[in-house]
From TrEMBL:
InterPro entries in alphabetical order: Aldolase_TIM, OxRdtase_FMN_N, YqjM-like
Cofactor: FMN
Domain of life where this protein originates: Bacteria
Keyword Transferase among record annotations: no
Domain named NADH:flavin oxidoreductase/NADH oxidase N-terminal: residues: 3-343
Record keywords: Flavoprotein, FMN, NADP, Oxidoreductase
Lineage: Bacteria, Bacillati, Actinomycetota, Actinomycetes, Micrococcales
Protein name in UniProt: NADH:flavin oxidoreductase/NADH oxidase
A family per Pfam: Oxidored_FMN
Length: 386
């Protein structure tokens, strides 16, 4: 198995094992994906990625992180995403989207305003906070709103929201769905004992804390049909006192896979706003690969790894050594949207056949000329040296 072997999941074939990790861009008005999203996500598809997973997209307005999140809570939001999915497909990549509900971590500013919780005074700038909901009435951290504990009826309505958003994602042309079950958002907050203090059918034991995620998975599978891959991003470890660790997550992954999840996308952290969890989970190169490897070897499921994958050989080895089935890159892709093509080149495939023909037909001969000049000892600065 190599980085550039196709990956078939249900009825969908990813042309290679490089994916673009979902990244919120806080650039939507009314939850609508616009020209920015077409260009931003289209670049990665033209850049050769096997799957491009669009940012955390709210299934309900209450489940946004900020006022500028994208959404699929209404039919009016389908058309913008259709443009994105269409370009990604036409460029030979698989269009994916991450569906999300931020739960108690919602109603904050964008990261470049430090993700500060919205307060009533923000209403003057058109950014009023909105009421949050979560499994239990516990704030995500100091200064954050105390969410309302969801009633059984709220939970049932919420499951329907996921279903409807997933159906809209299908209508928009997406062929790969990821559920955001990590980073302290609603699904994760049901799973973790740190944020779920319920004593009813949705909390109290590991099995009951899993109930809401399993209901969401069933509803989403119903909406997307049998043929579409379903990925679930999980925080493999909470990195918080009393939180989930990797042994717990292996059990969870087993239940998710049995419920119809095809890929466990292994991330970590975020259950509270306490950043000390970041130091407990050391940010080294490929820092989630051990988690991915463990789940992949102990559970019958495909896994994705993410986090500081920056180098072609590193990514290739993560696949070849069996650490993951799919390697997701976030910030590296922002830095170089053509990373996948460049990785092929770095790993020895100089054919340029994977590029869109409009680019590849020009870049192939250019590469051969550059190689010839290099072999002749010429550099771009040669003419200035005499
Ligand atoms: C700008 C930005 C936005 C992000 N938004 C999301 C998101 O919408 N959903 C998610 O699961 N992770 C999100 N993440 C986390 C990334 O998907 C990824 O897991 C993380 O950046 C680590 O991978 P990297 O080192 O390749 O960037 C975001 C990260 C960045 C940098």
């Amino acid at each position: 198995m190599t980085l550039f072997s196709p990956l078939a999941v249900r009825d969908v074939a990813l042309p290679n094992r490089v994916g673009v990790s979902p990244m919120c861009m806080y650039s939507s008005t009314g939850g609508v994906a616009g020209d920015f999203h077409v260009a931003h996500l289209g670049r990665f598809a033209l850049g050769g990625a096997g799957v491009v997973i669009a940012e955390a997209t709210a299934v309900h307005p209450q489940g946004r992180i900020s006022h500028f999140d994208s959404g699929l809570w209404s039919d009016e939001q389908v058309e913008g995403w259709r443009r994105v999915a269409s370009l990604v497909s036409a460029s030979g990549s698989v269009p994916g989207i991450q569906l999300s509900h931020a739960g108690r971590r919602g109603a904050v500013r964008e990261p470049w305003y430090a993700g500060a919780p919205l307060v009533d005074a923000d209403a003057a700038a058109g950014q009023a906070p909105w009421p949050l909901s979560a499994p239990s009435a516990i704030a995500a951290g100091p200064g954050h709103q105390i969410p309302a504990a969801m009633s059984i009826a709220d939970i049932a309505r919420s499951v329907q929201d996921w279903h409807d958003a997933a159906a809209r994602a299908m209508a928009a042309g997406f062929r790969f769905i990821e559920l955001h079950g990590a980073h302290g958002y609603l699904l994760h907050s049901f799973l973790s004992p740190v944020s779920n203090h319920r004593t009813d059918a949705y909390g109290g034991t590991a099995e009951r804390r899993l109930r809401y995620p399993l209901e969401v998975i069933a509803a989403v599978r119903d909406a997307i049909g049998h043929g579409v891959p379903l990925s679930y991003r999980i925080s493999t470890v909470d990195g918080a006192d009393g939180g989930l660790d990797v042994d717990d997550t292996v059990q969870v992954a087993r239940a998710l896979a049995a419920a119809g999840v095809d890929i466990i996308d292994t991330s970590s952290g975020g259950i509270t706003t306490d950043r000390s969890s970041d130091t407990r989970i050391r940010r080294g190169f490929a820092f989630h690969a051990d988690f991915s490897r463990r789940i992949r070897h102990e559970v019958e499921v495909l896994t994705a790894t993410v986090g500081f994958v920056v180098d072609p050989e590193q990514a290739a080895m993560l696949i070849e050594r069996g650490d993951a089935d799919l390697v997701l890159l976030g910030r590296q892709m922002l830095d170089d949207p053509n990373w996948t093509h460049h990785a092929r080149l770095a790993l020895g495939d100089t054919s340029h056949e994977s590029w869109d023909v409009r680019f590849g037909s020009a870049l192939g001969p250019r590469h051969r000329t550059l190689t010839r000049l290099q072999e002749a000892g010429e550099t771009p600065l040669s003419r200035f040296r005499n």
